[in-house]
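Below sits my pick:
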Amino acid sequence: MSVTEALKPSSVIAVVGTGAMGAGIAQVAAAAGHVVKLLDNRPEAAAKAVAGIRAQFARLAEKGKLTRDAAQAAGARLLPVEQLADLADAALVVEAIVESLEAKQTLYRDLEAIVGADCIFGTNTSSISVTAIGAAL
């Protein structure tokens, strides 16, 4: 089964880490019709990312790449949250946090106690082996 088949359009996607990569992942997921919860450990970073993504959707509508209604609907699906517990209903969590094996392993351990058993974990790591992340869990 592919990820596309595993995630229903009503599935909630969570993105942890709202820098450039995290915000980009959130934008794509919201445009695809998913409610997207964004979490960052920096105060107000998730809310700032949501505002930036909504502005990007508005620019796409101005250029005719999206209708205004589609841009507004996609923006409305973005929800900044403040704690891991807010991600309990996520079907997919993508982490886009600092490139630290220890930080990623800690995040996944903490998430395992919060999300459902069928939640899919993804990573945006560029330099750390996914095998290394999973092996230490």
Notes: The beta strands are 12-16, 36-39, 78-80, 90-95, 120-123.
